[in-house]
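Issue 218. Parser rejects a valid record. Input:
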Amino acid sequence: MKKVFIDGSEGTTGLRIFERFQIRDDVELLKIDSDKRKDPDEIRKFINASDITFLCLPDVAAIEAVELCDNPDTVILDTSTAHRTTPGWAYGFPELSSEHRDAIAKGKRIAVPGCYASGFIGLAYPLVKGGILPEDYPAAVFAVSGYSGGGKKLIGKYEEEGRDAKYDSARMYAWGQTHKHLKEMKQITGLTREPLFCPMTTNYHSGMIVQIPLYTDLLKEKKTPQEIRDYLADYYKNEKFIKVMPFGADVEAGGEIFSDAAAGWDGYEIFVTGNDERVVVASRFDNLGKGASGAAIQCMNIVMGCDEAKGLSL
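Output the parser choked on:
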């Protein structure tokens, strides 16, 4: 029985993590009084009493919370942006390599990836590692997410009674190329430049698609869409969370792939389509699943040494 504390349990990610523990019999949740959830002394007490602490906080608060930890045995899983590229922190995407999974299993500080970052990195990392995508490739990323990825404030704007009609259409943002996920998207993949990133949210709750268009003549070695798909399928062949779809799956679906189809699921689908000159690789998953709380629980399961999918939906 592991003692678990969620600092920030009233936020979107924290609430989803809390909900997932309701069916677990191997976790004891340490619950802070609601009127003391911002009291540093009380937070310190709960963090140091825990075996595992989840930080579901803004970046500055997450950094402050880590400094409160004096117990050398407490494992901290941070879902914020604060530590994803910090030396000494394991990056919480175990499928990337055996080294990533081992670092999570042995680590005391684990940074859970961002949702858009997961969508990009799960595609780009193996292509860079396999010598297909050049490190200096001018990558572009086009992505759409449910509005829940924007947190409580954005959720409120979409769900409030009599909401502004503008939220009926796609919301494109981060045009200044300063999105908080860009740093990890570059560093974790080994790319030498940050991608050109164009995200949007639209009028549904959860689920997302992340797309990377590729010119095959700019790859290290020109590949067909089928060859790229087969490479990714082999790379992830032993991973239960990642499903590389058969080549032509988009055609069989009528040429239409819907971004909310993975809502409520904790896996990660990969599609490859295109022609001999231009290829699109894409990932589809739940921004609150493999893109947030599901990924955090998976990392916790690795730390605990139990089935990675325990308490998750696959």
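Fixed in the parser; the record now loads. The first helix runs from residue 12 to 20.
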